[in-house]
Amino acid sequence: MAVTFQDYYEILGIKREATEKEIKSAYRKLARKWHPDLHTGKQKTEAEEKFKKINEAYEVLSDPEKRPKYDRLGSNWQNGQDFQPPPDWGENVRFHSSSAPNGHPPGGGFQEGAGGFSDFFETLFGGGFAQGGQATTGAGTTRSGAHRAPSGRGRAREPQRGQDVETEIALPLEEAYHGVSKTIQLSTGAVCAECGGTGAKNRGFCSRCGGTGQVPETKTLEVKIPAGILDGGRIRLRGQGGEGLNSGRGDLYLKVRLLPHPVYTVKGNDLETELKLFPEQAALGDKVQVPTLDGPVIMTVPPGSHAGTRLRLRGKGLPGKGGERGNEYVRLVIDIPSALSEEEKELYLRLKDLRKG
Questions:
Q1: Of 79, 110, 234, 302, which has the highest C-beta tally within 10 A?
Q2: 88 φ, ψ to 5°?
Q3: Nearest residue to 55 via CA among 69, 85, 34
Q4: Phi then psi for 338, rounded to 5 degrees?
Q5: Domain spanning 165-258: which CATH class is it, in words?
Q6: In this predicted model, what pLDDT tens digit does every residue of 194-245 receive, in sequence order?
Q7: Residue 69 and residue 141: Cα distance in Å, rounded?
Q8: 142 three-class SS
Q9: Which residues contact 207 (CB under 8 A, 6 or more apart)?
Q10: Hey, which CATH number is domain 267-356, 2.60.260.20, 1.20.1250.20, 1.20.1600.10, 1.10.510.10?
Q11: Mapped to the 3 state alphabet, what secondary structure does 222-286 carry?
Q12: Distance, first Cα to last Cα, the chain
């Protein structure tokens, strides 16, 4: 009986010499991407088909007995079309004919069998997926414990730590400096209620979580942002990460990203800003009002200040380690008035004449 060949390595996007870790990593990534619950309409139908193939590929390539059998096909795997098992294959597996009880049509492609797998799988392995007990694998032979649960069946009953989750939170500079309470909504992973986090159900992969043992969970949290946190700083929320077995929980890490500010540029613990001066203020000096995060202050501009000069306001930056604050640097910009009165023009002309003399 010819059936459509399934290239399990291609389905998972891995090389034939992939390690167990690489296989698991590729499977989890694809299972999350194509989980039917994350799609709607026509995309949901496509996702269901891809999901089945991904599960089947992982079932074979993660099994220390099935994978060598599959690899024995040798050059047959390259055909990619109809596959006819070698003559000696019947010594190890059970075949289905077109009149078999499960009613699979001969030459079928990804037709779902008793265990949710394709005709190709059933032809090679006889539908012998099981969570325990005995599964028929050949002419009258059996083996025990046919498949290990994909998400850690048999773990101890004490709480198992869930996955740590990291996400970003964007804050205006003032909120990061003064501290604020924020309501955030995020998606994490919860233990699948259908399989209890094992990833296996009814002699196959759990269709609810795709064998990952987890399903998406959306929750809303009230988070207190401490005053003085810097760009890139992390806030740890214990027990708010992914859910593990038996009510265990990972942690949630919020990474702070400061939003661009219209007045300040942040450089470590220091702040930089610009101050526009008229020519006479720069030449003669002046006392001007300058904004800071603590409110406006009066700063003295020394006579003869040039454009680009940086004046320092000590301790007006952001808090650092040990409570010591950075500085605020004020860069001077000379502002030439766009419209001059007749009197101003006369004064500038007199100044010009003085420069010539």
A1: 110
A2: -85, 5
A3: 34
A4: -80, -25
A5: mainly beta
A6: 887 777 777 777 878 877 777 887 888 899 999 989 999 999 988 887 766 6
A7: 16
A8: strand
A9: 116, 194, 201
A10: 2.60.260.20
A11: EEEECCCCCCCCEEEECCCCCECHHHCECCEEEEEEECCCCCCEEECCEEEEEEEECHHHHHHCE
A12: 108
For residue 21, give both structure tokens: 């870790």
pLDDT at 148: 36
Check pLDDT > 80 for residue 103: no
CA distance 62 to 56: 10
Instruction: Give the count of alpha carbons within 13 A of 115, CB side only.
Output: 26
| DSSP assignment string, 89-131 | GGGTS----TTSTT-PPTT-SS---TTS--HHHHHHHTT---S
Buried b (16+ CB within 10 A) or exposed e, 120-135: bbbbbbbbbbbbeeeb
What residues does 70 pair with on adjacent strands?
none
Distance, CA of 345 to CA of 180 (rounded, Å) = 51
Q: Kindly state the DSSP code that residue 210 receives in the 8-state scheme.
A: T
Amino acid at 3: V
